[in-house]
Amino acid sequence: MNILLKPIVTEKMTSQGDKHNRYGFLVARSANKLQIKKAVEELYSVTVESVNTLRYGGKPKSRNTKSALLRGKTTATKKAVVTLAEGNKIDFYSNI
Question: What is the mean pLDDT of the chain?
Answer without folding.
Answer: 93
